[in-house]
Design brief:
It contains seven helices and six strands. By secondary structure, it is an alpha/beta fold. Strands 1, 2, 3, 4, 5 and 6 form a six-stranded parallel β-sheet that branches. Strand 3, helix 4 and strand 4 form a beta-alpha-beta unit. Helix 1 packs across helix 7. The radius of gyration is 16 Å and the shape is globular. The N and C termini lie close together (10 Å). The relative contact order is 0.17.
């Protein structure tokens, strides 16, 4: 069985709590997961498309792991999608490299889950904000899977907001690995 490629797009992974913890948890399973950090590999933003396409081809499944960044993905991940998912490779009459690959998202959101609801502060769910990823997966004939999310790790919490505990953060990494292992 081929491994799962986890494409991590975090602009400041060294100061991350959630995404860094998830990477550390995944690293304990090197036979199952290949961790590929975009900002580490492409600090200048010049993506090697052929290298990225070969990496995707060498794996059966894909995970896009990132923090929600202005209600979207970080810019290098968007660039990766634009550059790597080319006509004739990912889509089009001959583009089938993502066909039937399972694809999911693993996202961390600084805001509490209740704020991502029709009655919440932002009036949209995280699932709704991530619909372009699902639509992209469908467009390239991949098998989109429900996302894994962690809410509430705000770097600038409002007064009175309770931050997740160390145990909750550690448990999220354990749950993340279990989620991916069960899916793939």
């Amino acid at each position: 069985m081929k491994k799962t490629l986890v494409i991590v797009a975090h602009p400041d992974i060294h100061n991350s709590v959630i995404n860094k913890g998830w990477i550390e948890a995944l690293a304990q399973y090197p036979d199952e997961f290949t961790i590929h950090e975009l900002y580490q590999n492409y600090p200048d933003g010049n993506i090697d498309v052929a290298r990225e396409q070969a990496l995707v081809e060498a794996h059966q499944n894909l995970v896009f792991q990132f923090p929600i960044y202005w209600f979207n993905c970080p810019p290098l991940l968007k660039q990766w999608l634009d550059d790597v998912l080319t006509y004739g490779w990912a889509y089009g009459s001959a583009g089938n490299q993502l066909r039937d690959k399972k694809i999911t998202l693993a996202v961390s959101a600084g805001i509490k889950e209740k704020d991502y609801s029709t009655d919440g502060r932002y009036q949209f769910s995280l699932k709704e904000l991530c619909l372009p990823f699902e639509l992209t997966a469908r467009y390239v004939k991949a098998d989109y899977q429900p996302m894994y999310a962690f809410y509430g790790m705000d770097t600038n919490p409002e007064e009175g907001e309770i931050q997740p505990t160390g145990n909750e953060i550690k448990q999220s990494a354990v749950n993340y690995v279990k989620y991916l292992l069960a899916m793939y």
